[in-house]
């Protein structure tokens, strides 16, 4: 939807690793990611911009990487898989993301849906993410420094909600902020976590358990 990323200066790591990027995309395909819009966005989004310099050279490996504050930028496979699950049958208008972190998943979403509302509890991470999204000219992202476990009621309901930090059980507020037909993609659990997709139907909620995952915990409160 937004092609701004293509205009960003892709010199340096971005350009020289074109082959590395293709290898990453092939790996995602091999792992079963099939949504071509998602694959295209991952191919063109400069993941290295979302990492500190010391980590940037590993940006196109299919691994989670540290972003400070004991948090991690999710593995590309997980970003692709969750995005594909969220998009499901068709395009989405309003999407809520819990856990902005580096802003990479936010950037991917912003190119595939109309508006992204992203909540982060650590102010410093949010500020860095905001700068990167501005640099990429992704203007359809709205940010909130808050405890995302409560969702973002003032901006709801949402056609899709994605959490990138795991609660022990799904917060009721998130379910309530789903529009009819809307989907929540969320890792759930403590030591052992599973990715779940919850769809709001006319009768209530339908839950599908997708696969085992390993996310940082969803924590209460905010950090200045
Ligand atoms: N999607 C991110 C992943 C970051 S890791 C990325 O692509 O980089 C998970 C993030 O969730 C962390 O930044 C963490 O601070 C945040 N988080 C944890 N609990 C939260 C909460 N209750 N509300 C909002 N953000 C939360």
Q: Percent range for helical residues?
A: 25-40%
Provide the list of bound ligands, each named once: S-adenosyl-L-homocysteine
CATH uppermost class of the domain at 69-213: Alpha Beta
Largest sheet: 7 strands, mixed
Unreliable spans are: 1-15
Radius of gyration: 16 Å
Give average pLDDT, whole number.
93
Instruction: State the CATH topology of the domain at 69-213.
Output: Rossmann fold
Q: Any idea what the shape is?
A: globular
Strand content: 25-35%
Structural class: alpha/beta
CATH architecture label name of the domain at 69-213: 3-Layer(aba) Sandwich
Cα distance, first to last residue?
33 Å
Order of helices and strands: HHHHHEEHEHEHEEHEEE
Could you explain how this protein is built, in words?
- With 224 residues, the protein is α/β, with parallel strands linked by helices.
- The chain has a domain at 69-213: Rossmann fold (3-Layer(aba) Sandwich).
- It is 32% helix and 26% strand.
- The chain binds S-adenosyl-L-homocysteine.
- S-adenosyl-L-homocysteine binds at residues 67, 71-74, 98-99, 101-102, 104-105, 119-122, 125, 147-149, 164-165, 216, 218-219.
């Amino acid at each position: 939807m937004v092609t701004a990323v293509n205009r960003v200066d892709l010199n340096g790591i971005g350009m020289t690793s074109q082959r590395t990027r293709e290898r990453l995309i092939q790996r995602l395909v091999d792992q079963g990611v099939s949504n071509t819009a998602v694959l295209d966005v991952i191919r063109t989004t400069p993941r290295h911009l979302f990492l500190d310099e010391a980590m940037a050279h590993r940006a196109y490996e299919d691994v989670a990487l540290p972003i400070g504050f004991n948090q991690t930028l999710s593995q590309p496979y997980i970003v692709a898989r969750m995005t594909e699950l969220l998009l499901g049958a068709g395009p989405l208008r309003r999407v809520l993301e819990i856990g902005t972190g580096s802003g990479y998943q936010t950037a991917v979403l912003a190119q595939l849906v109309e508006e992204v509302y992203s909540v982060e509890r650590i102010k410093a991470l949010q500020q860095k993410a905001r700068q990167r999204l501005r640099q990429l000219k992704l203007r359809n992202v709205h940010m909130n420094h808050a405890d995302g476990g409560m969702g973002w009621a003032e901006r709801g309901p949402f056609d899709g909600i994605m959490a990138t930090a795991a609660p022990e059980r799904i917060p009721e507020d998130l379910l309530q902020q789903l529009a009819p037909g809307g989907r929540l993609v969320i890792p759930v659990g403590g030591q052992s976590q599973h990715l779940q997709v919850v769809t709001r139907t006319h009768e209530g909620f339908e839950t599908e358990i997708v696969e085992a995952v390993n996310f940082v915990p969803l924590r209460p409160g905010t950090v200045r």
